[in-house]
Design goal:
6% strand; elongated; mainly alpha; Arc Repressor Mutant, subunit A; two-stranded antiparallel ribbon; 8 helices
């Protein structure tokens, strides 16, 4: 077995396989788009490369279809389950990254009033999406995704509050 350093992408793949049971890289891409991709950006290329890297190190199994498209299917091994368990129980790093283009534009001098309307619309739409998703019955059986969604709802509510405040400054400043 090849030794590899596990990265955040490694843990995303391990975690998604723990939920899905078995998945192709394309399946992983689809799952990310509707779940962790809302708060953790992962290039699609990594979702195609990482499972093979983890298979070479014994964290997942790789099974190739005999015919047709010959897709590769991956599933967790016991080593992968243990690595995921160790990671989820270890203290989180203190640093985190907030990647919001609107905040970046503010930092570099964009006019807050001009930016506020578009950002308010964007975050209001995302909040509505998250609130609709929170009504899914499936989330009742999956406490981790439900709690992450609750965090996302809180995050978007704060952004709606922030951008509303800037949008209202525009209205009151014009009087």
């Amino acid at each position: 077995m090849k030794e590899v350093t596990l990265t955040p992408t490694s843990y995303v793949v391990l975690g998604l396989l723990s939920l899905a049971g078995e998945a192709t890289p394309y399946d992983l891409k689809q799952i990310v788009a509707g779940s962790v991709g809302n708060f953790w950006a992962i290039p699609h290329s990594q979702l195609y490369a990482e499972p093979a890297r983890l298979a070479a190190a014994g964290y997942v199994t790789e099974k190739r279809e005999a015919g047709g498209r010959r897709r590769k299917h991956y599933a967790l091994t016991e080593r992968g389950r243990q690595a995921l368990e160790q990671w989820t129980t270890a203290p989180s790093e203190r640093s985190w990254e907030l990647r919001d283009p609107g905040i970046l534009k503010l930092f570099f001098g964009a006019d807050p009033a001009s930016l506020a309307q578009d950002q308010l619309a964007t975050h209001s739409e995302r909040l509505a999406e998250y609130e609709r998703a929170s009504e899914a019955e499936l989330l009742e059986t999956l406490p981790g995704p439900r709690l992450a969604l609750e965090a996302g709802i809180g995050h978007e509510r704060e952004y709606v509050r922030f951008w509303s405040k800037l949008a209202n400054r525009k209205k009151t400043a014009g009087r």
